[in-house]
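Case study 2.
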Amino acid sequence: MTNSETARFVLGGDRKKQAGEIMSEVMSALEEKGYNPINQLVGYFVSGDPTYITNHKGARATIRQMERDELLEVIISDYIENLNSGN
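Prediction:
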């Protein structure tokens, strides 16, 4: 593949379900500890630094069960699906 070609990324249904479970657990743990989940998750996704995610309820280990790019793919895909279903 040359630099001008676009790479394809495909995520299966099982991985989408796993990503949803991971995000739900992590967001719950962040909220329980009094953190703003959006701010903390953005920090994690942008920097790759897992310390943005609390250790409470094993959330830090949970979010690392999937690669950041896979989690982001699910989040963006769901967002786009929701935008399109509103039309």
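The chain has four helices and no strands.
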